[in-house]
Design a protein that fits this description.
This protein is α+β, with helices and mostly antiparallel strands. It is built from eleven helices and twelve strands. The strands form three sheets. The protein has a five-stranded antiparallel β-sheet with strand order 2-9-4-7-12, covered by helices on one side. It starts with a strand and ends in a 9-residue tail after the last helix.
Length: 319
């Protein structure tokens, strides 16, 4: 299975969309498209083949089809079969993707540049695992990871966005950006649902992993002066092993993660308390107020005082 790594620093380019319902027994025609297509099945199984791979889509399943590859139906669907479909391309040019070129070569297709990157499932799932483990990572916020086949899509959430998209498509807005941004939101919704599904599956398969316990211990003690050595001692690991294990599963060093927890609390205290900066530094386990200020400036690109002035408390009326 592959994933589409879609850059969303600018909105994707909307091509077309529709809601298909079969009025009789139906089979998908054979064709090659020049853009990406996602099909989200609503009712009755549909049977679609891309090159040599066959997919049976049940209600709530979505399928991503790549440009330049042949897809067609391989069996008939019953009357009443129904699905959403939409076509899209990249909003702007990015680096050509080697993986898609390899896929094209496997199928003896012409090598053409593409605007996004097609990656193998293992690589994508490593990234998704990092996203699930660490809320402080922002390296992956500029793109969506969309799988070839996704089961059990939350149709209620998707349907709201999709019907808004159909409405915009027929409303002739003065700018195409309306459909582009809404379609981008729909792709983000699908990517988020896939992330949550992966987390649920991973949690059940790896219920004995110590990472959740390690993260909870760090969270509880994060306002104290703790280090990698303290955590290694608590969980009976060597420092070297724990450092590698944490970096692999969290995408950053343990010390960086601890600093992120401390600064998250610092921002809360700066906005919601009258503590001085020195008192906040002491509360967070810093012996040196100047080091705390230097670290805050480095990580937030502003000083604690400037942050407090910019995000001062909002007083709410209760009358």
């Amino acid at each position: 299975m592959y994933y589409l790594k879609a850059n969303i620093t600018s909105p994707v380019c909307f091509i077309s969309a529709g809601h298909f319902t079969a009025e009789s027994r139906w089979i998908h025609s054979e064709r090659i498209i020049e853009d990406y297509e996602i099909i989200i099945n609503l009712k009755n199984p549909i049977f679609i083949q891309q090159e040599e791979v066959q997919y049976t889509l049940n209600s709530g399943d979505s399928l991503l089809l790549l440009p330049g590859l042949t897809h067609k139906g391989f069996d008939y669907s019953d009357k009443g079969a129904s699905f959403y479909w939409f076509h899209f391309t990249a909003g702007r040019q990015v680096m050509p993707c080697k993986q898609e070129a390899a896929i094209r070569q496997d199928y003896n297709l012409e090598n053409t540049d593409c605007t996004w990157e097609v990656i193998q499932s293992g690589e994508a799932e490593n990234v998704i695992s990092l996203i699930n483990n660490n809320n402080f990572l922002d390296d992956f916020s500029s793109y969506c990871l969309l799988p070839t086949l996704m089961r059990s899509v939350n149709l209620d959430r998707v349907s709201i966005l999709f019907h808004q998209l159909l409405h915009l498509q027929s409303s002739h807005y003065y700018t195409e950006q309306a459909t582009r941004y809404l379609l981008t939101s729909l792709l983000i919704e699908l990517a988020q649902q896939n992330i949550l599904q992966f987390k649920s599956k991973h949690d059940s398969e790896h219920s004995l992993d110590k990472l959740p316990k390690i993260l909870e211990w760090i969270r509880i003690h994060s306002m104290k002066r703790i280090s990698l050595s303290d955590v290694a001692h608590e969980f009976n690991y060597s420092k070297e092993y724990l450092a590698r294990y944490f970096k692999k599963h969290m995408g950053m060093s343990m010390q960086q993660y601890i600093y992120n927890l401390k600064l998250s609390k610092a921002k809360e205290l700066l906005c919601e308390s009258d503590k001085t900066i020195g008192e906040i530094a002491e509360t967070l386990g810093f012996l040196d107020e100047k080091y705390f200020m230097k670290l805050f400036k480095k990580m937030e690109d502003t000083t604690p005082k400037q942050y407090r002035n910019a995000y001062n408390r909002t007083h709410m009326n209760t009358n």
